[in-house]
Amino acid sequence: HSTTNLNLINGPLNLNQKTFTISNADIAGITRTSGYILSNVLDIGFNSKVQWNIEKATGVHVFPFGVNSSTYIPFSFDLKNGENIGNVSVSTYPDLGSAANVYTNRPTIVTNLDGEAGTGNPGNAENIVKRFWRIEPTGSGTVDVTYSYAETEIPVTGEEVNSMVAQRFNTTTNKWEAALPGQLSNTTTNTVTVLGVTNFSPWAISRKHNPLPIELLYFNGKCEDEVSILNWATASETNNDYFTVQQSEYGIEWKEIGAVAGAGNSNTLIKYTFSDSEPNKENTFYRLQQTDFDGTQTTFSPILINCKNPEENALNFINVSSNENGNLNVAFTYPQNDGKCVLMIYDNTGRILFQKGIEAAEGTNSAGFDLSAFPSGIYLISICDSKNTITKRIVL
Asked: In the predicted model, is pLDDT for residue 352 greater than 60?
């Protein structure tokens, strides 16, 4: 349906998986007394849309969404610079229930809700507002947007921690971008305002201290002339003050050996490097700890480097796999007869959770382990003998 102006006097306007178009670009193109555009059912395809042909009309354009007659959750779109933003389509829907339901019923174009709280299902779903938005302008411009959500839609955790942040899902990289700086959060009115938005697509709101991913692309290292060279990169950063590099001999007790300044806020690839000229005589574990400007810290999974005889490291993984029942299968090559190896599994803090001896023969070896008691997540698996160690990340 399309109209020049829309005046909502009373009751709901049910879009029912359709697009409603308003052609009047002025902010008075939509007005309301007590009516609202209904948004209280699942719409993972974002099919129920309001399209407002805003074009170059500056000012606060209010999309009057509501859950019911007593719960009004408007979305505000404030074009700042008079560029031609074109036709602006906005859709939103709630997803009430458990974190697992929020994850399962995320938008079809959103591939994950991964974050500091974990990956997979439910990932970070327990920390996000139980509502999603999609904003689709046909043109371009700089916009301030304000999201509103109902009291029943606060995170599964039941707390908002005084501040929430809105984040955009990048459908090209399939990653959540770092929250734009300078956001205004009001947990009394349940609103979040984001200033200076120029890119659009799906959005979600997360607890500030449990944002959707600050993306660490990789953390690895190698030994060169008995010096450990560590490398890592980020795809996005939010309020990142600095990284701390930590070292351990056995992956249990950690000491700080240096710090590297972070980029603060970034949505681009940034690479970092750090050298340790005093690694342990044999195996050395390293891990990163990231600290925000407000002191919040995140610790990433450790890696292991052998600087004693790196060229002799003839242990090699062939395959590591796990099934839905928690059974882990490991295949690896071994360079000699009658060897004794140890398999260890670490959590993301470097704590040893599992350790078992393996009798290895020359050539290909395989072993199976029951890890059904382990919660779903990312772990580090290590196999070592008297000379060498190999490590690999696994997902259970």
From this structure: yes
